Amino acid sequence: MTSLLEAHDVLLLDLDGTLFRGATPIPGAVEMIARSARDGHQIGYLTNNGSRSPREVAAHLTRLGFEADESEVVTSGQAAGRLLAERLPAGASVLVIGTEDLRQEVRGVGLNVTDTAEDADAVVQGHSPETAWPLLAEGCLAIRAGALWVACNVDTTLPTERGELPGNGSMVAALRTATGAEPLVAGKPEPWLYTEAVRRTGARRALMIGDRLDTDMAGAHAAGLPSLAVLTGVSGPGEMLRAVESERPTYIGADLRALDEDIETVSAVAAPPWKVTVEGAELVLSGDGTSGPYDEVAALRGLCGVHWARGGGAVTVRAGDGAAAEALLALGLSAD
Description:
Blueprint: E1 10-13, E2 20-21, E3 24-25, H1 29-38, E4 42-47, H2 54-63, E5 73-75, H3 76-87, E6 93-97, H4 100-108, E7 112-114, E8 122-125, H5 133-144, E9 148-151, E10 157-160, E11 163-166, H6 168-179, E12 184-185, H7 192-201, E13 206-210, H8 213-223, E14 227-230, H9 237-242, E15 251-253, E16 274-279, E17 282-287, H10 296-309, E18 316-319, H11 322-331
Parallel strand pairs: 1-4, 1-13, 4-5, 6-7, 6-8, 8-9, 9-12, 13-14, 14-15, 17-18
Antiparallel strand pairs: 2-3, 10-11, 16-17
Helix pairs in contact: 3-4, 3-7, 5-6, 10-11
């Protein structure tokens, strides 16, 4: 047996919803990451938030119990800096709409920072609660004049203890409306954050792990990386089953402990010990006649395998026996 962990040399990890929820680590996550590192696997902590420095992200992870170093953190701000450096000559001037940390990322790749549109060869836009109209106006003028425009991410909202607040994508939308232009996006679901993480880690067999189909899995697809979707965050079983092809994970697990499972067993299209049949427009889930035990995540994999092969989309699932009824109820796929 080859485990999913043994088949890869680098783990690229989403944070919220994959490693922790708010201020609470997800069960098994701290231990799994620590053991993976001890076994020689490199770890990459990926975040779409370009407003915080790698040191701040690593400090937050350390407070939660993860043995994280700032060198293991890859932010969309770093990916944005790489995008700019690949497209601009050394010493070019960049108008930064964002935090001081983002300004430092720009300087770190050999570019200069400016505050005026007239001097700007490019505009980079990341989240900052201090962003005000005058700076957006400078960005608008620079973009209209032909400056390269890079956004760290286009997340429309930002989760806080008070609820969802406007994220960088909402501010990007303001400049999109004002200029009619479209930015290059450094963060998920575009591939640049992933390719930057692979470059930094020297990965040969990287695995992306996350909880969101529309960002984590879509970005892995765009970067050509295999992915593990965990059921600890945003995207649930129903979304997995209905996922469009560009957002389907390679593997599905209940949580990070799926890394210890056999690579064939944890495949997103593996069925045993379940049987899935098609009856009209319905999928019918049943046990395979053995004594089990029957794992509901394995049931989800089996359902995905059959449904995705048929093209995917909306579908109704029905239980063919008692074990299937219990599994569908646990997955939230029961019609009852």
